[in-house]
Design goal:
Number of domains: 2
Number of strands: 13
Distance between the termini: 47 Å
Shape: globular
Order of helices and strands: EEEEHEHHEHHHEEEEEHEEHHH
Radius of gyration: 19 Å
Helix content: 25-40%
CATH topology of the largest domain: Metallo-beta-lactamase, Chain A
Strand content: 15-25%
Structural class: alpha/beta
Length: 313
């Protein structure tokens, strides 16, 4: 297969895992002094793309030292157990709350199927392979990895999920942010820059913790965020403020509709209205039907996450 990837600066490659559609879910490959690391893997069906990228770039599979997971949602980590089978020298690094779910993914599998159904699981995620326990390592806040002289530092970043880590790369002054620094699709870029909004995915959305996390990350004065959804963006204080504004905007929508008879439908419709409005204000001018199509993949899970948050409160 022919992989799709974007060569960035500082030895970083953004790989399009081709999950659901193009330009939707990324994994990253970091190269340094002949060694390599993956950050996130996409789902099980994405693994051939990751391996094909190594082949295309003439990187041997035994040159990969680390498979680093920002968190264990399946669009980020569902391929970890399968990928590690092909990388003889690599070990997995993951938040302590996620490690056991990689070793025994039965609860993850059951949870996804209960929400999305078995047909969706098989068609869009494929499978979920256990990772060998002796190759799964717990990464805690402040821990570092040395990629052939390049330091990668883990930061505990709750908000999107309690089992979320970000990775600070001092060399690029960039953050591999998973979902913590938001979703930003390149189709919505305008002269005003990037449009960023929060993925309020079930089941651990915590807006207060998330805003604290963003402020914590901004003390690093990052130049870039390497987003899973999607690709590298410049990340400034203005970016952080936009994300915090929309976290609050999403929670306001949830609270406004918390007593509605069909709460989920009302939240979902209100989120779409909100997203179309902020896109218009951001200077997005392409066809509204296409905008709705691009937002559609996020609406369901964002509305679900807001519903779980309301119930938990």
């Amino acid at each position: 297969m022919k992989p799709i990837y974007h060569e960035l600066e500082f030895g970083i490659t953004c790989i399009d895992t081709q999950h659901m559609r193009q330009d939707f879910v990324a994994a990253y490959l970091i190269e340094n002094n002949g060694r390599a690391a993956f950050v996130d893997t996409g789902c099980y069906l994405s693994v051939p793309t990751l391996l094909a990228t190594l082949d295309e770039k003439n990187i041997s599979r035994d040159a990969v030292d680390f498979v680093i997971l920002t968190h264990i949602h399946l669009d980020h980590a569902g391929g970890a157990g399968e990928l590690i089978k092909h990388l003889p020298n690599a070990n997995i690094y993951v938040h302590e709350r996620g490690a056991q779910h990689l070793i025994d993914p039965s609860k993850l599998r059951a949870g996804v199927i209960s929400v999305y159904g078995e047909l969706f699981f098989k068609q869009f995620l494929g499978d979920l392979i256990p990772a060998p326990e002796n190759r799964v390592n717990i990464a805690k806040d402040g821990d570092t990895l040395n990629l052939s002289g390049r330091e990668l530092r883990f930061i505990d970043t709750p908000g999107h999920a309690r089992h979320h880590l970000c990775i600070w790369d001092e060399y690029s002054k960039g953050i591999f942010s998973g979902d913590t620094l938001g979703v930003s699709y390149r189709e919505f870029d305008t002269e005003q820059g990037c449009l960023i909004f929060p993925p309020t995915t079930p089941i651990q959305f915590d807006p207060e913790a998330w805003i604290e996390t963003i402020d914590k990350l901004m003390t690093l004065k990052p130049k870039s965020a390497y987003l899973t959804h999607f690709n590298q963006i410049e990340f400034t204080q203005q970016s952080a403020n936009m994300l915090k504004q929309h976290i609050n905007g999403f929670t306001q929508i949830a609270n406004q509709h918390k007593d509605d008879t069909n709460r989920h439908k009302a939240i979902k419709e209100a989120l779409l209205t909100y997203l179309l409005k902020i896109a218009y204000e951001h200077g997005v001018t392409f066809d509204k039907a296409q905008q709705i199509k691009l937002f559609k993949g996020d609406l369901e899970i964002c509305a679900q996450g807001l519903g779980v948050w309301l119930d938990r409160r």
